[in-house]
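Reopening: C-alpha coordinates for the iron/sulfur cluster complex, inputs below.
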Amino acid sequence: MAYVVTENCIKCKYQDCVEVCPVDCFYEGENFLVINPDECIDCGVCEPECPAEAIFPDSDDAAAAWAQANRDYAGIWPNITRKGEAPADADAWKGKPGKADLLSPAPGKGTA
Ligand code: SF4
Ligand code: SF4
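Re-run output (same inputs, fresh job):
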Protein backbone atom coordinates (compact mmCIF):
# COMPACT_ATOMS: atom_id res chain seq x y z
CA MET A 1 0.00 0.00 0.00
CA ALA A 2 1.08 3.55 -0.72
CA TYR A 3 -0.44 6.93 -1.24
CA VAL A 4 -0.54 8.47 -4.72
CA VAL A 5 -0.44 12.08 -5.97
CA THR A 6 -3.03 12.64 -8.69
CA GLU A 7 -3.96 15.12 -11.40
CA ASN A 8 -5.11 18.01 -9.26
CA CYS A 9 -1.58 18.64 -8.00
CA ILE A 10 -0.52 19.67 -11.52
CA LYS A 11 0.33 23.38 -11.59
CA CYS A 12 -0.81 23.72 -7.94
CA LYS A 13 2.12 22.09 -6.18
CA TYR A 14 1.44 23.73 -2.82
CA GLN A 15 3.94 21.37 -1.17
CA ASP A 16 2.17 21.26 2.22
CA CYS A 17 2.43 17.49 1.89
CA VAL A 18 6.23 17.33 1.99
CA GLU A 19 6.37 19.08 5.35
CA VAL A 20 4.45 16.34 7.13
CA CYS A 21 5.81 13.17 5.53
CA PRO A 22 7.79 11.26 8.18
CA VAL A 23 9.89 9.38 5.64
CA ASP A 24 10.55 12.16 3.08
CA CYS A 25 9.25 10.16 0.14
CA PHE A 26 8.08 13.03 -2.11
CA TYR A 27 9.87 13.77 -5.39
CA GLU A 28 9.60 17.01 -7.33
CA GLY A 29 8.83 17.67 -10.97
CA GLU A 30 8.56 21.06 -12.61
CA ASN A 31 4.81 21.32 -11.94
CA PHE A 32 3.89 18.15 -10.01
CA LEU A 33 4.98 16.08 -7.04
CA VAL A 34 4.97 12.30 -6.73
CA ILE A 35 5.25 9.78 -3.90
CA ASN A 36 7.73 6.90 -4.10
CA PRO A 37 5.51 3.87 -3.44
CA ASP A 38 8.47 1.81 -2.22
CA GLU A 39 9.27 4.37 0.49
CA CYS A 40 5.76 5.47 1.54
CA ILE A 41 4.78 3.83 4.84
CA ASP A 42 1.07 4.38 4.23
CA CYS A 43 0.62 6.61 7.28
CA GLY A 44 -1.93 8.85 5.51
CA VAL A 45 -0.75 12.04 7.21
CA CYS A 46 -0.24 13.87 3.89
CA GLU A 47 -3.74 13.27 2.52
CA PRO A 48 -5.67 15.86 4.59
CA GLU A 49 -2.81 18.38 4.30
CA CYS A 50 -3.17 18.78 0.54
CA PRO A 51 -5.17 21.95 -0.26
CA ALA A 52 -5.89 20.58 -3.73
CA GLU A 53 -7.16 17.22 -2.42
CA ALA A 54 -4.81 15.50 -4.85
CA ILE A 55 -3.57 12.66 -2.62
CA PHE A 56 -5.35 9.30 -2.42
CA PRO A 57 -4.53 5.82 -1.12
CA ASP A 58 -3.72 3.46 -3.95
CA SER A 59 -6.79 1.42 -3.05
CA ASP A 60 -8.97 4.36 -4.17
CA ASP A 61 -10.25 4.41 -7.76
CA ALA A 62 -8.98 7.98 -8.10
CA ALA A 63 -5.40 6.78 -7.69
CA ALA A 64 -5.41 4.06 -10.35
CA ALA A 65 -4.53 6.23 -13.33
CA TRP A 66 -1.65 7.91 -11.48
CA ALA A 67 0.06 5.11 -9.59
CA GLN A 68 2.46 4.22 -12.38
CA ALA A 69 3.41 7.88 -12.98
CA ASN A 70 4.24 8.24 -9.27
CA ARG A 71 6.49 5.18 -9.43
CA ASP A 72 8.17 6.21 -12.67
CA TYR A 73 8.86 9.84 -11.82
CA ALA A 74 9.98 9.02 -8.28
CA GLY A 75 12.86 7.19 -9.93
CA ILE A 76 14.09 10.18 -11.91
CA TRP A 77 13.01 13.37 -10.10
CA PRO A 78 14.88 14.83 -7.08
CA ASN A 79 13.73 14.31 -3.50
CA ILE A 80 11.93 17.22 -1.82
CA THR A 81 11.80 17.48 1.98
CA ARG A 82 10.96 21.13 2.63
CA LYS A 83 8.21 23.32 1.34
CA GLY A 84 9.29 25.82 -1.30
CA GLU A 85 7.23 28.53 -2.98
CA ALA A 86 4.01 27.45 -4.64
CA PRO A 87 3.46 28.72 -8.19
CA ALA A 88 2.04 32.26 -8.25
CA ASP A 89 -1.01 31.05 -10.18
CA ALA A 90 -1.57 27.91 -8.09
CA ASP A 91 -4.96 29.02 -6.77
CA ALA A 92 -6.19 29.71 -10.31
CA TRP A 93 -5.39 26.10 -11.32
CA LYS A 94 -6.80 24.48 -8.18
CA GLY A 95 -9.64 22.14 -9.02
CA LYS A 96 -9.52 22.71 -12.79
CA PRO A 97 -10.37 19.58 -14.78
CA GLY A 98 -8.32 18.28 -17.69
CA LYS A 99 -4.85 19.10 -16.38
CA ALA A 100 -3.31 15.71 -17.15
CA ASP A 101 -1.93 16.85 -20.49
CA LEU A 102 -0.12 19.72 -18.77
CA LEU A 103 2.09 17.45 -16.66
CA SER A 104 5.71 18.38 -17.31
CA PRO A 105 8.20 15.50 -17.37
CA ALA A 106 10.98 17.94 -16.43
CA PRO A 107 12.49 17.59 -12.96
CA GLY A 108 12.00 20.21 -10.27
CA LYS A 109 14.77 21.60 -8.12
CA GLY A 110 14.22 19.30 -5.12
CA THR A 111 15.64 20.05 -1.69
CA ALA A 112 19.40 20.40 -1.77
S1 SF4 B 1 0.03 19.47 -1.13
FE1 SF4 B 1 -1.17 18.59 -2.81
S2 SF4 B 1 -1.06 20.10 -4.46
FE2 SF4 B 1 0.55 20.52 -3.00
S3 SF4 B 1 2.34 19.49 -3.78
FE3 SF4 B 1 1.39 18.15 -2.30
S4 SF4 B 1 0.05 16.86 -3.55
FE4 SF4 B 1 0.58 18.63 -4.79
S1 SF4 C 1 1.20 8.45 3.37
FE1 SF4 C 1 2.73 9.06 4.92
S2 SF4 C 1 4.64 8.13 4.23
FE2 SF4 C 1 3.23 8.11 2.48
S3 SF4 C 1 3.68 9.99 1.35
FE3 SF4 C 1 2.00 10.46 2.78
S4 SF4 C 1 3.01 11.25 4.62
FE4 SF4 C 1 4.58 10.22 3.39
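The domain at 3-80 is CATH 3.30.70.20 (Alpha-Beta Plaits). The two ends are 28 Å apart (CA to CA). Marking as resolved unless the reporter disagrees.
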